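dumping the sequnces here before i forget
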Amino acid sequence: MTLTVYGTPISVYVRIVRLLLEEAGADYQLQSVDIFGENRSPDYLRKNPFGKVPTIEIDGEFLYETAAIVGYLDAVFASSKFSPAEPLQLARMRQMMGIVDSHLYAPAIQSIVIQRLIVPSQGGQTDENKVKDAIAPAKTAAEAIESLGKFNPYLLGSNLTIADFYVIPVFIYLAKTPEFAEITSETPKLRSWWDSVSQHPTVQKVCG
Ligand SMILES: N[C@@H](CCC(=O)N[C@@H](CS)C(=O)NCC(=O)O)C(=O)O
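..and the predicted 3d for all of it:
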């Protein structure tokens, strides 16, 4: 079985997939596709018509959308050990993935991280209004995850799950911004989860 992950190692969603693959000890290659134009090339759009990374190729089949990718890879490479067997906890995992997709990624990454870290690094000026407006929705998402989680020691209990893989790459970037303190001010369990998982060797390897 030959597995290729197309994308850039700086992408949150590529990191979600790679965290699972590294934890599973799976053999794969990362084929660079940047998000500054290469992802809109005709060649890449044939693999993923939305121009998003990641896409994976497995024995000639292409698969995109991270939730579908990680579900597939977990089954094939890890005997589904990163998905809870108990139905409600499985639903909680998918709920957290949905919260990241629909309520955390946009304010945390597309607004706060882009404005605080990327724009200034390219000589631009942070749009403070964009940052300010993004704090409340990101805080709501963090508080929702806190209220749904078990935190002993991972989000859904004693085993790492795909829910952890979804939140970690967002927090890696968000924790570098001053807004992280406010966003997590009411989520002490999420903060101590973060203090612990951020030191994990796989997290350092994939997201460091
Ligand atoms: N729904 C997609 C989202 C993936 C996504 O947003 N990837 C970002 C990088 S983290 C991307 O490709 N951005 C490039 C662009 O939007 O042009 C998934 O779950 O895979």
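The mean pLDDT is 97.
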